[in-house]
Amino acid sequence: MKAVKPPSMRAWVEIQKAHDMLSLLVLDPDLRRRVIDCDKVDLMMASLDVLCWVLHHDHNQTFAVNLRDVEGLLADAGFKLEEVQ
Q1: Spatial distance between the Cα atoms of 56 and 3, rounded to a whole number of angstroms
Q2: Which residues contact 59 (CB under 8 A, 6 or more apart)?
Q3: Phi, psi of 54 (to 5 degrees)
Q4: Alpha carbons 56 and 10: distance in angstroms, whole number
């Protein structure tokens, strides 16, 4: 399986802004109850976990752990990422 490099990546400031907005919504219980539909909280938390991983926030290792699990499951199934282009 080959990974394909995207044509460009978002600017650091956009990634940080998305992280900060999601953090505000997800981590403030009162705001979360008023603004987010209950069925979207887990999705937003998962998105925040990924952004923390991208930004190297060591306090949140959820996505890093999940990624290691995925890599292990894929390896067990015979898949290996051989090349990133």
Answers
A1: 21
A2: 52
A3: -60, -40
A4: 16
What is the separation, in whole angstroms, between the first and last Cα of the chain?
11
Which pLDDT value is given to residue 85?
A: 62
Provide the 10 A C-beta neighbour count for residue 15: 14
Nearest of 17, 48, 22 to residue 35 by alpha carbon? 22
pLDDT of residue 14: 96
For residue 24 the two structure tokens come to: 């505000």
Q: What secondary structure, in 3-state letters, does the chain show?
A: CEECCCCCCCCHHHHHHHHHHHHHHHHCHHHHHHHCCHHHHHHHHHHHHHHHHHCCCCCCCHHHHHHHHHHHHHHHCCCCCCEEC
Give the pLDDT confidence score for residue 62 in this predicted structure: 94
Residue ranges, the chain, pLDDT below 70: 1-3, 6, 84-85
